[in-house]
From TrEMBL:
GO terms for biological process: xylan catabolic process. The lineage of its organism: Bacteria, Bacillati, Actinomycetota, Actinomycetes, Kitasatosporales. Residues 25-341 form the GH10 domain. InterPro entries: GH (IPR017853), GH10 (IPR044846), GH10_dom (IPR001000). This is Beta-xylanase. It comes from the Bacteria. SMART domains: Glyco_10.
Length: 353
């Protein structure tokens, strides 16, 4: 029997898993309450259509999480669909929702190769024009949300898996210096926001995480205002789970950087079964445990919390079931694993900022 966050108050759920969960004043404590004990924010990416249309989704987003990330609505194609025509409406709605629910916002994302407006990708701009366009985009966007964004993903996914810089409109036309420029421009626009480099597959040791470490070290040495590195945490159980995560996170912390898990989900080849769901739970536990063991890991964010709205099936055919709750908001072993890890008080107050 599974309990459902939508239909059954967790404390009333009769499953063995629910019985193991900590009770608090007769009511099960939420993830955000448990994370607060660890001085960690626990977050989710938010699908704005679901937030508008689905009351269970809205309630769980507000109750369980202390930070939110717009899944799509702060991306350039949404914010400036036509050149000079801005649309911050959906992003503003999420920022307002967060304020009402005492949540902090991760801004996602300023510089990326994907989800760019077509006027930008098809325009035949000179390097100088493109540099001005990027400067204006970063400045206008960061200023618009000034004081309301906790962490910005300033540059997203700039590396290939082999550790070389990704071929993108930015690298091709502006050269590798676009990365440092982006951080400088974002800092000028909001000096109090924490500025992150964000990428996937850097949970694994290897050329990509080494390259990001090298970049972060060089940026710090040059006085570029980078505050942290985000480990997206998109895992698939068919590929195995990364080992040595706490040690990997610690390498970044040694540079004086914060870290964060920014987009955790753990997919599988469908159909799901008990064994796969148990491995998935272990994947979530590993990511969260690495964060809890790292002194300056400041947030643990899942990329959506329910299989109902996941991006995975649309991109990886035959795969899915990647989230903490199933399509009916039923509690999966992964949710219990996260709850349990947060209840373990893995880090003491003295081990955190
Ligand atoms: O908005 C249009 C809508 O007008 C249209 O009718 C519909 C038809 O398919 O598409 C809608 O756009 C989709 C958009 O999500 C909003 O729902 C795009 O097709 C779809 O490609 C897009 O996917 C997003 C993906 O980024 C794009 O790269 C996913 O939702 C989002 O979860 C995913 O998030 C990324 C992070 O930003 C960066 N890290 C990896 C992560 C997963 O890919």
């Amino acid at each position: 029997m599974t309990s459902s966050l939508a239909l059954v108050p967790l404390a009333a759920a009769g499953s063995a898993a629910a019985a193991e969960a900590p009770a608090h004043g007769g009511k099960e404590r939420t993830l955000r309450q448990l994370a607060a004990d660890d001085r960690l924010r626990v977050g989710t990416a938010v699908d704005m259509s679901a937030l508008a249309d689905d009351t269970d989704y809205r309630r769980i987003t507000g109750e369980q999480f202390s930070t939110v990330t717009p899944e799509n609505v702060m991306k350039w194609e949404v914010i400036e669909p036509q050149r000079g025509v801005y649309d911050y409406a959906a992003a503003d709605q999420l920022v307002a929702f967060a304020a009402r629910h005492g949540q902090k916002v991760r801004g996602h994302t300023l510089v990326w190769h994907s989800q760019l407006p077509s006027w930008l990708t098809t325009g035949d701009f000179t390097a100088q024009e493109l540099r001005q366009i990027l400067h204006r985009h970063i400045t206008d966007t960061v200023r618009h949300f000034k004081g309301r964004i906790w962490q910005w993903d300033v540059v997203n996914e700039a590396f290939n898996d082999d550790g070389t810089l990704r071929d993108s409109i930015w690298l091709r036309k502006l050269g590798p210096g676009y990365i440092a420029d982006a951080f400088r421009w974002a800092h000028e626009a909001d000096p109090h926001a924490k500025l992150f480099y964000n990428d996937y597959n850097i949970e694994w040791s290897g050329p990509k995480s080494d390259a990001v470490l090298d970049l972060a070290g060089r940026l710090k040495a040059e006085g570029v205002p980078i505050d942290g590195v985000g480990f997206q945490g998109h895992l698939g159980i068919q590929y195995g789970l990364p080992g040595g995560l706490p040690e990997n996170f610690a390498r970044f912390e040694k540079l004086g950087l914060d870290t964060a898990v920014t987009e955790a989900d753990v997919r599988m080849v469908l159909p799901a079964d008990d064994e796969k769901l148990a491995t998935q739970a272990e994947g979530y536990r590993l990511l969260l445990d690495a964060c809890l063991r790292t002194r300056h890991c400041i947030s643990f964010t899942v990329w959506g919390f329910t299989d109902r709205y996941s991006w995975v099936p649309g991109v990886f055919e035959g795969e899915g079931a990647a989230n903490l709750l199933d399509e009916d908001y039923g509690v999966k072993p992964a949710f219990r694993a996260v709850q349990k890890a947060l209840s373990g008080h893995a880090r003491t107050k003295s081990a955190t900022r």
